[in-house]
């Protein structure tokens, strides 16, 4: 939905009225803080209304996404229906997903509310992709998605209705598909760089979505529900999710404690696979699968050991032809304390063994499996975006085919898909940047770039006049500044209340028009400085401003590192604000 | 979702490739034409994907809505959840609506997909409206709505998933509520004026939504499914929907044919109401209800005459205390041919009669019931927007209360609601303006304001150079023009194909860079001129251009009134384009 960015209205109806207490600002979970500060309002578990301040933040973020994807990747914007027919999901065998919201219309047709749109976009593009000449192509949308999570939590971080950007690429061969995958990932990095948040790319498992190659974007955050592992070796610096990361112990075979076993069956069910690993560690199925060259029936992943043994014995009445494959995690050794082997009748001759592999979830401190040199560091994080090089996982069952240069008409399109959790990114940034005074938005997505505050109108005509003068500098049609401006958030409250509201809502700059300081105004810096503020010599950086204003930076306390304030003549205020915003 | 307007990309993947045949352009229904021209794609009955050209059109229209509502009415933008809980709809007694899409989550909670948001917004605003000081306030959103129509038809004109702008007003008293209602209606008119389409306001029935005052916005259109009646008397000019319009026959009591009767019961069910009217006319329940001062049980509206007679006799065993009220439409007289009266035992004394009222749906040619002077004219139309002055219909059951100036804390908020069918407006405009060459968008919502076409690149280096020069005039960063620019729609097709595609997609101006005409270019005017082009003296209007270019206007045929073409030096092309666009 298009909106002109500079259009600044007060939105006075749905805004916080009174400052939040220190206690609330300090210890309220971020989801509740966002609600009290009128960004979002929870209506049901995992379901939210977006309020004006939240809408502005979302609009600014999606604007960055639109511009980057269209400019860098010539992406075509669409908006697919939210109602996706069951038949498409049957074709890709994804209908039996308990997290899909499902419904029937009055004619008993079945639909789900879209959780993701691989099926719909593949079906749609059959109308527009028929020849190799129609590719490569990138199509995307930004809109509501639905996932019936059993345990929604942390507000917009794990919601049942949320806003997502999902893009889909189409290429005629592997090379173009990989190029497109790389190009879109480059754009994703640029998008997050524009937000000035420290997002990390991690090699990831492609899970239910599918494909060979997958990259996740993580925001490091204490208390995040994901874990990423990064190698500290300079030539490597590999980062992977804990579902994907491969690590080896600093020294192999040193574990002498209890050993756990997890059973599996080969795809043809004639081989029992026994994974042995330290009891204190978790098996990593991606690694476990790799260790046997993928020859494992993955549908049994969640079955218990006993269920697998029973299945193995039932399906193989004659134990003479069965095999047993033992996979030994490299951490254990023969002196480790192994569990009993459950089968009675078997041939020792049919036992195989794989040694020296790593099949457990990586932990910090171990050796990086990528370079075999560095040590891994483990970091808690939130996943904010995910990209997949899909291959033909969707084009095959849904028959998205094209004619190639040699007139072969049944070539399958190679697809990729790319998602950014828009509301999740916003909730993560709130979580990451909040401090004892409230939220602290990067200026690129702050609901308002600046707020101009003063005492309530009508108390002092001189101050009223000065206030109007400063407001008009930013809001006037002459103003060339592309900043959203908030005036007093609560028109009838005191100056102190409005400063406090501006700070807690996370508006990067608060401009205070007081009656004593005039003709100077005070600019309070709330936003986080991404430049090196400690060594910042304003007079040297901007000699033309030397005469115009004094400046001071003071650190109040370790929990409140920056309480930066600039005092500047109102005549130069727009210039100084522009300079400050560049770094916020 | 925010997007910068001038950002012009080719969106080349999802665009028409080949010109449509004359036959298709002439006789294909508009819904199919929009699909062939890649604006929307139907996926299921009444369900559509929005494609790039459609998205651009929607974005431009919603941009106008955002700007007008925020600037004129200080409206706050929100986005409510699409999942609305059953409990809210139970409270207002609207859950039993067969057109609601309903679903359950994994915990068996029931929701509907929002068809309209009176319930949700009323519940939400309880958090932000507590005092008379918090009002008046206007809150709005633009987003997808859902209605499980049994018979979706005419593409986006009657869809099951569609885009709507819905606004809600909150006021502390009747006076403010009416002022707000009028203010928003004023803005609606401005919005449609910006589209340069001839929208008509009609007094309307408030139906299921509720409230006392209601205005519909209609686009007159042959083949529209609505009917509006307008008075031709200059002092009156009253317009009403056929559900609301009151008309009288030119002369009363002239109808001598067969008379129809429709029965009703008074609210206490002790009076049988018999409506008599000409058999050839339709009863209008709004007028029928008014004629008995609203003392009628409306829930019986759809019952047959026999059902009502049975009910009347069952509930009133002693016919001595019942009454019969005959309501005579003013068109009939005593010589008309009345049906038999079905009751045997009744007291003649208990018969009452109302004469001289009009209880049938108005038709063109009759006398306007508003002024009693003019004649009504009947026009087919499409409803594109609707506004309601709701009173306390939703604030009462959902307890949206406030404290007034005298500290009374249980005052009910007076609400209004306002809807514009965004996708419906776009489909209507397509229907209204299309001609033998395809679509003709007003420039305010055209997906692209201009298209610049030439022969395919690489055939003539001189032409390529000239083409790039013209494109850069419009796309360059120096360009101050706020126009979305399309280049060759099909990059590999001929000049003729691209002119035809540009025309059929309804792009207002096509700029042709040919190799013969250079240094002049040709500007073909496709858009409808809303000024008086026949008398337009370009040389007089724009003397500064007199030297710069020649012009010609030619009428090709009655079905193709304007085939206007301007030949102009490329140096002046941006200037001329700007002048032309003002009138399109």
From TrEMBL, chains A, B:
<dbReference type="GO" id="GO:0005739">
    <property type="term" value="C:mitochondrion"/>
</dbReference>
<protein>
    <recommendedName>
        <fullName>proline--tRNA ligase</fullName>
        <ecNumber>6.1.1.15</ecNumber>
    </recommendedName>
</protein>
<dbReference type="Pfam" id="PF00587">
    <property type="entry name" value="tRNA-synt_2b"/>
</dbReference>
<keyword id="KW-0030">Aminoacyl-tRNA synthetase</keyword>
<dbReference type="InterPro" id="IPR036621">
    <property type="entry name" value="Anticodon-bd_dom_sf"/>
</dbReference>
<keyword id="KW-0547">Nucleotide-binding</keyword>
<dbReference type="InterPro" id="IPR006195">
    <property type="entry name" value="aa-tRNA-synth_II"/>
</dbReference>
<keyword id="KW-0436">Ligase</keyword>
<dbReference type="InterPro" id="IPR002316">
    <property type="entry name" value="Pro-tRNA-ligase_IIa"/>
</dbReference>
<dbReference type="GO" id="GO:0004827">
    <property type="term" value="F:proline-tRNA ligase activity"/>
</dbReference>
<keyword id="KW-0067">ATP-binding</keyword>
<dbReference type="InterPro" id="IPR045864">
    <property type="entry name" value="aa-tRNA-synth_II/BPL/LPL"/>
</dbReference>
<comment type="similarity">
    <text>Belongs to the class-II aminoacyl-tRNA synthetase family.</text>
</comment>
<dbReference type="GO" id="GO:0005524">
    <property type="term" value="F:ATP binding"/>
</dbReference>
<dbReference type="GO" id="GO:0006433">
    <property type="term" value="P:prolyl-tRNA aminoacylation"/>
</dbReference>
<dbReference type="InterPro" id="IPR050062">
    <property type="entry name" value="Pro-tRNA_synthetase"/>
</dbReference>
<keyword id="KW-0648">Protein biosynthesis</keyword>
<dbReference type="InterPro" id="IPR002314">
    <property type="entry name" value="aa-tRNA-synt_IIb"/>
</dbReference>
<feature type="domain" description="Aminoacyl-transfer RNA synthetases class-II family profile">
    <location>
        <begin position="133"/>
        <end position="442"/>
    </location>
</feature>
<dbReference type="InterPro" id="IPR004500">
    <property type="entry name" value="Pro-tRNA-synth_IIa_bac-type"/>
</dbReference>
């Amino acid at each position: 939905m298009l909106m002109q960015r500079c259009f600044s209205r007060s939105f006075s109806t749905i805004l916080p009225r009174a400052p939040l207490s220190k206690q609330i600002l300090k210890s309220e979970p971020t989801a509740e803080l966002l609600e009290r500060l009128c960004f979002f309002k929870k209506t049901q578990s995992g379901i939210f209304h977006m309020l004006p301040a939240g809408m502005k933040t979302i609009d600014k973020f999606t604007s960055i996404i639109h511009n980057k994807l269209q400019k860098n990747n010539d992406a075509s914007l669409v908006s697919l229906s939210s109602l996706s027919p069951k038949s498409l999901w049957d074709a890709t065998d994804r209908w039996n997903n308990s997290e899909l919201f499902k419904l029937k219309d009055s004619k008993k047709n079945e639909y789900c509310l879209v959780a993701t749109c691989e099926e719909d976009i593949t079906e749609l593009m059959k109308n527009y992709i028929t020849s190799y000449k129609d590719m490569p192509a990138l199509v995307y949308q930004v809109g509501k998605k639905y996932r019936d999570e059993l345990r929604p939590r942390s507000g917009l971080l794990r919601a049942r209705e949320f806003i997502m950007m999902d893009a889909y690429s189409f290429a005629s061969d592997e090379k173009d598909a990989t190029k497109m995958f790389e190009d879109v990932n480059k754009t994703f990095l640029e998008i997050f760089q524009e937000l000035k948040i420290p997002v990390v790319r991690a090699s990831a498992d492609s899970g239910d979505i599918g494909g060979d190659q997958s990259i996740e974007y993580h925001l490091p955050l204490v208390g995040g529900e994901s874990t990423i592992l990064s190698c500290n070796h300079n030539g490597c610096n590999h980062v992977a999710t804990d579902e994907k990361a491969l690590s080896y112990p600093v020294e192999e075979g040193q574990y002498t404690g209890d050993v756990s076993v997890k059973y599996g069956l080969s795809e043809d069910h004639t081989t029992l696979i026994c994974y042995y690993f330290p009891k204190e560690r978790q098996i990593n199925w991606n690694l476990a699968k790799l260790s046997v060259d993928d020859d494992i029936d993955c549908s049994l992943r969640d079955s218990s050991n006993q269920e697998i043994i029973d299945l193995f014995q039932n399906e193989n009445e004659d134990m003479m032809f069965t095999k047993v494959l033992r996979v030994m995690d490299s951490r254990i050794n023969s002196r480790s304390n192994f569990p009993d082997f459950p089968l009675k009748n078997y041939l020792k001759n049919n036992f195989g063994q794989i040694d020296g592999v790593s099949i457990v979830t990586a932990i910090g401190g171990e050796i990086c499996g990528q370079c075999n040199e560095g040590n891994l560091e483990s970091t808690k994080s939130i996943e904010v975006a995910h990209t997949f090089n899909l291959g033909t996982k969707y084009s095959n069952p849904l028959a998205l085919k094209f004619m190639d240069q040699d007139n072969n008409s049944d070539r399958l399109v190679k697809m990729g898909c790319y998602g950014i959790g828009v509301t999740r990114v916003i909730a993560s940034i709130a979580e990451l940047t909040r401090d004892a005074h409230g939220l602290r938005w990067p200026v690129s997505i702050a609901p308002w770039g600046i707020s101009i505050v003063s005492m309530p109108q009508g108390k002092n005509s001189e101050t009223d006049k000065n206030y109007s003068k400063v407001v008009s500098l930013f809001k006037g049609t002459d103003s060339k500044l592309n900043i959203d401006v908030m005036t007093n958030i609560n028109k009838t409250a005191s100056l102190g209340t409005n400063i406090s509201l501006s700070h807690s809502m996370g508006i990067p700059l608060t401009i205070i028009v007081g009656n004593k300081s005039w003709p100077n105004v005070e600019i309070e810096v709330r936003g986080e400085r991404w430049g090196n503020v400690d060594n910042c010599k304003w007079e040297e950086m901007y000699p033309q401003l030397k005469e115009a204003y004094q400046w001071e930076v003071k650190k109040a306390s370790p929990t409140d590192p920056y309480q930066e304030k600039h005092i500047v003549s109102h005549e130069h205020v727009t210039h100084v604000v522009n300079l400050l915003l560049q770094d916020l």
